[in-house]
């Protein structure tokens, strides 16, 4: 039986990554089972960026640059699609001082 397209959003999460030295915060969302998997992706992207293997700058790099950070679950948010998830993420982006600068609804 084939999975319905929205089923991957049933385990959606909103999270924050916090720099332990500067207290800078990045707010994000994921459908991945483990937040550690999402953080590992960011670490790899950041490493590639620092080694000039990528020009794709991410706002989260402001939090990762000191190599002293942690990820925290803000909310489990089961939903039907990416737009619902991103709208919920935006509630948190708009409510705290964070490094997120892009209007995530427009992505």
Q: What does the oligomeric state look like here?
A: single chain
What is the percent of helical residues?
25-40%
- Coarse shape: globular
Number of helices: 3
* Measured distance between first and last alpha carbons: 32 Å
- The class by helix and strand makeup works out as alpha+beta
Q: What does the radius of gyration come to? A: 14 Å
CATH topology: GIY-YIG endonuclease
> Main sheet, how many strands, which sense, barrel?
3 strands, antiparallel
Order of helices and strands: EEHHEH
By CATH, the superfamily comes out as GIY-YIG endonuclease
Overall mean confidence score, pLDDT: 90
Number of strands: 3
CATH classification, class level: Alpha Beta
- As laid out across the biggest beta sheet, the strand order is 2-1-3
Share in β-strands:
15-25%
Low-confidence stretches: none
- CATH architecture descriptor text: 3-Layer(aba) Sandwich
Our count of domains comes out at: 1
Describe the model.
There is one protein chain. The chain has 107 residues and is an alpha+beta fold. The protein has a single domain, classed as GIY-YIG endonuclease. The chain is built from three helices and three strands; from the N terminus they run ββααβα. The protein has a three-stranded antiparallel beta sheet with strand order 2-1-3. It starts with 12 loop residues before the first strand and ends in a 12-residue tail after the last helix. The model has no long low-confidence stretch (mean pLDDT 90).
């Amino acid at each position: 039986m084939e999975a319905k397209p929205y089923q991957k959003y049933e385990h959606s999460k909103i999270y924050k990554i916090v720099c332990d030295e500067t207290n800078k915060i990045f707010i994000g969302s994921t459908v991945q089972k483990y937040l550690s998997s999402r953080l590992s992706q960011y670490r790899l992207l950041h490493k590639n960026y620092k080694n000039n293997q990528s020009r794709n700058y991410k706002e989260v790099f402001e939090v990762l640059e000191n190599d002293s950070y942690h990820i925290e679950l803000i909310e489990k948010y089961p939903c039907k699609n990416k737009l619902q998830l991103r709208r919920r993420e935006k509630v948190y982006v708009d409510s705290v001082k964070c490094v997120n600068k892009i209007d995530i609804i427009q992505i």
